[in-house]
Write a structure and sequence with these properties.
Strand content: 15-25%
Structural class: alpha/beta
Largest sheet: 6 strands, antiparallel
Shape: globular
Oligomer: single chain
Number of strands: 20
CATH class of the largest domain: Alpha Beta
């Protein structure tokens, strides 16, 4: 029996991005059956998969946690009730499979008995045909019942995965994600890079309502918002206070463009400050648990403390919407920067307003991506890279970072850790001593024979952005596949 898996399940089991499997489907290397792939075909392409470990998945999960600037959490099992329900569902499927096998066995026994009758009672031609069919049936039954077959690695791993996590499909987008441990549906979706609609994320506003099309959910957090009787009858639930018991299909609103997210005003606190260089500070702000910030990777925020304010790109991923990072450059003409370097301290309040800007990932593109940053243009690029990692939609991610000042690659270790941990990520640091913007474009073109097969995201000082954009246009790079931001 052919075992079919969704791309999300298959990618998680073999430890690659969904984009890598999509590329193999497009090239004809991997067959697709109505959006599903065969476990046998996956084992043929990835023969190194073993039952004893799933190193690829663990490696990707670890780098995601570190990349998003979050505390490495202990991976918790689902609570006992959810675990029991998932095991019950699998037991029910096993019982159903056994019932089917028993019926098939009974059919085979009846067929063999009928063939024996024809061998003894039928006409000569019928007796010969029945004898041949009987021999064939006996031989095949002996092979099936007497032989042993090693368990399919992907089948075993998928069964284990289904106990540990639930697979969720979102309609109408057909986006997929997994709910691990005791996570809510909303938290799991955000961590997977999806921009589902939500507000307080605390069970009060009702903006994260979703309709359950199939599957079961269970309440894991308190909620004050009360669904109407009509909503309950239609299967609506709050994603921020429920988890998935098993595989789930939901209907939910998603933000795919910058205009889909309304401006918000939130008073956050300084969580930490870390010097990234003599003239550069990492500002880590944390929002209240009951008022997290909705934004898309690559967007900006207006930050205000006292009488000083500035608009800065967010340097962290929407996957962790409470912990926001900003790269602040020392500038005697900038009152906000002066405040950050001279007097701001952990615990101080900073008012956030936004988000702004449309320098965001293209939701409808599965092309590989080239990220190009110059100096602190790395801030919005970092947000985009981390978001792209969470989505796992692109086959390859390439980062080129040009530094025009000493110690300009101020988070080089982070970039190297991405490259070390992820097979589909490459990092190329470049200094102004060895290349300017024009030479950088030539280097990118030399590295990629068909640059038009990529999306390019470009951020940095205005002169740098203008020069690179002009150089790409001269090479005939499609305008629709280029996004640029001055940072």
């Amino acid at each position: 029996m052919r075992q079919l898996l969704s791309l999300s399940r298959a990618a998680r089991l073999v430890g690659v991005a969904r984009g890598a499997l999509q590329q193999k489907i497009r090239s004809g290397e991997l067959a697709s059956f109505d959006g599903m792939v065969s476990g046998g075909d996956l084992l043929r392409i990835y023969p190194e998969i073993k039952l004893e470990s799933d190193a690829g998945f663990e490696r990707v999960a670890k780098i995601k946690e570190e990349a998003f600037g979050k505390r490495v959490r202990e991976h918790l099992l689902p609570d006992r009730e959810i675990l029991a329900q998932r095991l019950f569902e699998q037991s029910r499927e096993l019982a159903d499979l056994r019932a089917h096998l028993q019926r098939y066995h009974a059919m085979v026994v009846q067929l063999r008995e009928r063939l024996r009758q024809e061998e003894t009672q039928g006409a000569d031609t019928v007796r010969k045909s029945a004898a041949k069919l009987g021999e064939l049936l006996d031989r095949d039954l002996e092979a099936v019942l007497g032989g042993t077959e090693a368990p399919n690695a992907l089948t075993v791993m998928d069964d284990m995965l289904r106990v540990m996590s639930a697979h969720v499909v979102v309609r109408p987008s057909r986006h997929e994600f997994f709910v691990d441990g005791a996570d809510t549906i909303l938290d799991a979706a955000l961590r997977s890079g999806l921009a589902l609609n939500y507000g307080c994320s605390n069970g009060n506003c009702g903006l994260c309502k979703a309709r359950v099309v199939s599957g079961q959910v269970q309440k894991v957090r308190h909620q004050d918002y009360v669904l109407s009787e009509a909503e309950k009858q239609q299967g609506y639930t709050l994603m921020c206070s429920h988890t998935a018991v098993g595989d789930l299909v939901i209907e939910a609103l998603e933000s795919v463009e910058a205009g889909d997210i309304p401006p918000q005003q939130i008073v956050a606190q300084v969580k930490a400050m870390q010097a990234l260089g003599d003239d550069l500070m990492l500002l880590h702000l944390q929002t209240p648990r009951t008022n997290r910030l909705r934004f898309l990777a690559g967007q900006n925020l207006t930050l205000t403390t006292g009488a000083a304010s500035a608009q800065l790109p967010i340097a962290s991923c929407p996957c962790d919407d409470r912990n926001l990072h900003f790269h602040v450059v020392r500038n005697a003409q900038d009152g906000f920067a002066q405040r950050v370097f001279d007097s701001l301290k952990p615990g101080d309040a900073v008012t956030l307003f936004g988000p702004w800007g449309d320098f965001v990932l293209r939701a409808d593109s599965s092309r590989s991506i080239v990220f190009v940053a110059c100096d602190t243009g790395f801030a919005p690029i970092k947000s985009l890279v981390e978001h792209a990692m969470a989505l796992e939609a692109s086959e390859r991610l390439h980062l080129y970072w040009l530094a025009t000042r000493p110690a300009g690659h101020y988070l080089a270790n982070l970039c190297r850790s991405w490259a070390d941990a992820l097979d589909n990520f490459s990092y190329v640091p470049i200094t102004a001593e060895h290349a300017d913007a024009q030479e950088l474009v030539r280097r990118i073109g030399a590295d990629h024979a068909n640059l038009n097969a990529f999306d390019i995201y470009l951020a940095g000082p205005e002169a740098f952005v203008r020069t690179v954009t002009m150089a790409l246009r001269e090479q005939g790079f499609p305008e629709a596949q280029l996004a640029a931001a001055i940072a």
